[in-house]
Amino acid sequence: MSGTANAMQELFARAASLLLGNEVDVAGDHDAKLLLQALEYGGESSNRLDSVSANRAHLLIAASRFARVFELAAPDAPGLISFGAQFDPALADSVHDGSPMVGVSGVGLTLQEAFQGCIGEGIEYLSQLQTGTDLLLKPGVDDWAGKLGPNALELAAALSERRIQPERALSWCRATKLTDGGEVWLPADICLRRPPAQRDFAPPFPLSIGSAAGPSPDAAALHGLLELIERDAAGLWWRGGQLARSIPPQHEAAIVAEELLQKLRHGVATPRRTWLLDITTDIGVPCVAAVSCRADGSGFAFGLAARPALEVAVRSAILEMCQLELADAVVATKRSGGSDNALNAQDRIHLQRAAINADRCRLLHPLAEYAAHPPLRATEASVMFRLIVQRLENLGIETFCLDLTRQRFAVPVVRVIAPGLQLEPSEIVTARLQDTIMRTGGGATYTRGVPLI
């Protein structure tokens, strides 16, 4: 996919129109048909528009509104397909006029997978942005204290102490408590991306964690919940010092990893060394860290994933690892002029992490033992979501959900919040992380405090 930004925007719009069945608008549009075929969306319209086609059309419409959508080549993984995109936050609401452009990306083995990951991430971000129609509340303490459990109350108290103007009351968003379906209120600044001038406090963790777009609300909610579990596992491993375990070489996950890496690394003269770590926690949902480095142990990169099945987690973690390798290559390009002036804060974290020698860091080498993964006996996203929520409840971890789907994008977006889980990165240290550090001595023993993300 190449061409000027305006030409690509128009092409995405015409392809969406064709997919929606508007033949009059795009009659004989060969390029739009080719785009649909390349994305495996099909090039023929029909009188009946199903939910899958509608979702795909909405992704194309969103892409047509972005400032840029482009492909990237991954030098260490030629088999990886990667899309990047940039957009103006004002697409969500004029209250964000003047905000800097935002960049997102997506990867996969097919154009469809990479495109949907990239544009979906953009819609997720835009849907989180506060709009003029969002209802925020300013309740008194007695209004919400009785409806939140201890983890949520502790988080709310910690966030209240971070107020930019201590005399100003917090704003709150309505959310649903998943264990009983009841309505609760949570601090607005961990629910929505608000304009800086309107924030009560600076969010202590990225608001992207636990938020997801999907083809259905159930799929989006499940993806968001799995991301929370993934980051909790990463925090207990990297900052908590909880050593990873091995994946049995005869397990289907190990076979999937080998076949996938052959596809991704094919054609590279000196492929990076790659291995897997099982960082599954007491929750039991499979969590994997895929790790790679150069032959001498330098250039450490990683990918994280929590999925209902170990082999699916392995696949996702490896793709994310290759995405990070690509990000590191972009940072190297920025530095090629001999100056670090072009680097942003995230770029500098990349450099710190990549400087770790993977051969010498104990956290990057698994124990010779295997984790337990109690099966999630379900195939539907809604059922798996409920089963995982129940597991969390059994551990005393409450979960909350917000539907952030915006009519202007028409793609389901859900935010899941679980205050008892440790986020990574986060300025807030939960009891789970504190307990792990007390037991192990902490990950800084091995990392010297270098952040993972």
Automatic annotation (TrEMBL):
Signal sequence, renumbered to the chain: none
Pfam family name, one: YcaO
Source superkingdom: Bacteria
InterPro entries: YcaO-like_dom
Domain YcaO: 106-453
PANTHER family (alphabetical): RIBOSOMAL PROTEIN S12 METHYLTHIOTRANSFERASE ACCESSORY FACTOR YCAO
Name of this protein: YcaO-like family protein
Organism: Bradyrhizobium archetypum
Taxonomic lineage of the native organism: Bacteria, Pseudomonadati, Pseudomonadota, Alphaproteobacteria, Hyphomicrobiales
